[in-house]
Every structure is written in structure tokens, then in C-alpha cells.
Write a structure and sequence with these properties.
The chain has 7 helices and 3 strands; from the N terminus they run H-H-H-H-E-E-E-H-H-H. The protein is mainly α. The protein has 2 domains: about 25-80, Fe,Mn superoxide dismutase (SOD) domain (Helix Hairpins, Orthogonal Bundle), CATH 1.10.287; about 95-200, minor pseudopilin epsh fold, CATH 3.55.40. A 3-stranded antiparallel β-sheet has the order 2-1-3, with helices on both faces. Helix 1 runs antiparallel to helix 2 (about 60-80). The radius of gyration is 18 Å and the shape is globular.
């Protein structure tokens, strides 16, 4: 049987991130929105396979653009769930803390820049912290939708979803309030592990 994309289980309960993210909001985001990207990716892979079997033509530009959107949405959400934690009050340690201090001057300066990147992302999208292997520096980026303005091949260390489906039940359209409540639930240990894996 061919493998398909699947919705991962969360590493914590749906109520574990409250009050920063409510059980209702998290459940809807995970079970409905993330599941939709999984379903979309699987449907498009199946559509491509069927066209090859039947030797029929597809609008490849549209099909591959849509496939990229759904796969990226799935992958980014997998990263997002893992870089959240109910263990409040964490701070970066080790190499991650060292690089944040070196490249941004301080953790507070990094958080300010990252928050500004997330708040100013046009429409629906993400803010990311990534690592440039060529210059060996941390970089902040903005992704529109799931797949526009990507730094190709650069590994993502920290991501925040600023599509309104992430926060509309808890914060209405107040993205800034959501971002304020994002920082207390960042899983810095996981972000640090992602960095360590690429520096080996």
C-alpha cells in the first residue's frame, strides 16, 4: 500500500496551551484546517497518479502549484505544533541562545523583529526563523500563504502561523494579541534541537 500524508497527533492535549490558545481553537485548527491540507495533498497525489495511469493530460502549472500549497501547509503545521509547549517560561539555551545573542544582540531584540515580521506578513502566512548554511547566520523570513517567499533549502527552526484560522476564536482579528500570547508557549528546547541537528 502506498504511503499517504497523515495528520500527526499533537504532543500535548487540546487543553494544554490554555489560556494562550484555547481548547476549542486548537482543536479546530488541528482537526479541520490542518486536516484539510493533508486531504488536499493526498487528493492531488492521487489525481497525478490517475492521470499517469490513464495517460491523460492535466494543467500541470495549476496542479503543481496547488500541490505545493497543500504539502507546505501540512509540513509547516507539523513544525508549528512541535514548536509549541505547555511548559511556560522556557528560554533559549546552548547554541541557539548563543546565535540569537550574536545575530540579533539579545533575545528581546529577536522577539521584537520576529513579532514585527509576523504582524506585517501580508494576508495569510507565516513568520519563520531559519538558518543560512552559507553565512552561518540566523535569518527571519515571511511566508505568504504557505509557499511564497521561501528561502529554498534553508531549514526552518521556529514558525508561527498568522492565518486568521490560528487565532480568530480566541482573539478575533487581533493578530498582535495572538502574537503576544505566542511567546509564552514557544518550545525553545525543540527549536534548539532543530538547530543542533543541522550543525552536526
Amino acid at each position: 500500500m502506498e504511503k499517504t500524508y497523515t495528520l500527526p497527533e499533537l504532543p500535548y492535549g487540546y487543553d494544554a496551551l490554555a489560556p494562550h490558545m484555547s481548547e476549542e481553537q486548537l482543536k479546530l485548527h488541528h482537526q479541520k484546517h490542518h486536516q484539510a491540507y493533508v486531504n488536499g495533498a493526498n487528493a492531488l497525489v492521487e489525481k497525478l497518479a490517475k492521470a499517469r495511469t490513464e495517460n491523460t493530460d492535466l494543467d500541470m502549472k495549476a496542479t503543481l502549484k496547488e500541490l505545493s500549497f497543500h504539502i507546505a501547509g501540512h509540513q509547516l503545521h507539523c513544525l508549528f505544533w512541535a514548536n509549541l509547549s505547555p511548559a511556560a517560561g522556557q528560554v533559549p539555551t546552548g547554541k541557539l541562545a548563543e546565535l540569537i545573542d550574536r545575530d540579533f544582540g539579545s533575545l528581546e531584540r529577536f522577539k521584537k523583529e520576529f513579532t514585527q515580521a509576523a504582524a506585517s506578513t501580508e494576508g495569510s502566512g507565516w513568520a519563520i526563523l531559519t538558518y543560512c548554511p552559507q553565512t552561518e547566520r540566523l535569518l527571519i523570513g515571511q511566508l505568504e500563504k504557505h509557499n511564497i517567499n521561501v528561502y529554498p533549502t534553508y531549514p526552518f527552526l521556529l514558525v508561527v502561523d498568522v492565518w486568521e484560522h490560528t487565532y480568530y476564536l480566541d482573539y478575533k482579528n487581533d493578530r498582535a494579541k495572538f502574537l503576544e500570547n505566542f511567546w509564552p508557549i514557544v518550545n525553545w528546547a525543540e527549536v534548539g534541537k532543530r538547530l543542533e541537528r543541522i550543525l552536526i
